[in-house]
Amino acid sequence: MTMTTDWQSEAESGFHTVGDFRFDDGHRLDVTLAYHTLGSLDADGGNAVMLLHGTTGSGRQFLEPSIADFLFGSGQPLDASRFFVILPDAIGHGRSSRPSDGLGPGFPHYGYGDMVEGQHRLLVEGLGVERLRLLLGTSMGGMQTWMWGERYPDQRALMAIASLPERITGRNLLWRRMLIHLIESDPAYGDGRYGKQPAGVGHAMALFQLMAGSARHMASDLRSIDDTDGQIERIASQALDCEDANDVIWEFDASRDYDPAPGLQSIRAPLLAVNFEDDELNPVELGGLERAIAKVPHGRATTLPAGPKSRGHQSLHVAEIWCDHLAELLDRTRD
Questions:
Q1: pTM of the predicted protein model
Q2: Which one, 201, 245, 289, 328, has least CB within 10 Å?
Q3: How confident is the model at residue 4 (pLDDT cuts 50, 70, 90)?
């Protein structure tokens, strides 16, 4: 497939401010919600779709060619000439309000519930859309898709990618807490009041890449100590240039309130869950997806086998391997 569209320049950007936003912990703050859009909204609003990104990401991740070319191009499942595509930055991410905007450690410790509320406020109040043709999320966004299905059940279709609808425990909880401790235990962190980014940010993001990557590809790419040390240094350097310590802590801590399992029976919209066989963040051998989807009235699930183009958890960025399942969901939920 040959594509020439520059999706970054095609997208329109915008901001919506929610005054006196009430966080679940009781804090109140004027919150700015950033987003990008592709295409135009129909008069009846029936062509609106929203895509939710993962932890540390932003809506712009969906504009990368490995996703956008296979979703938004002519004849693709979410052809931008037919759909109005909304790509929000969740609270704490991208250009939406976050600790690094100035409050630092004084920024409210938001949770996934706050992020979902912000997305809904942006959709309804900012963009005037009452019902989505499709809500699709990847990783953290996939987790929030399950929450959307419970809180706002009138969407026409839901697709959750690389996620599980269950409270975070075990290894998944362990590495998240380790990541946070790597930053907080760095003396340079200074309880969140630092002059420059502490080195712990680089170590934390290296751990994140270890957990999110593909063991098969790491076996071929990291053949020596020099190769491995070089990758650690590149990840750390990029993190120190691009990430903020408080932002990262808040992003990973936000999952503490996540537990849609008790309400899965209340999801009314057709839901398709897609996971990956080589995704170590959502291990197939624990059987969580199969147990959960059986409780969703109109739910279906599939686990895609590992293949030449899969990348572990990061297979979510390779839309070529899952876009046909999206097309099938859209076809199945036509009026």
A1: 0.96
A2: 328
A3: low
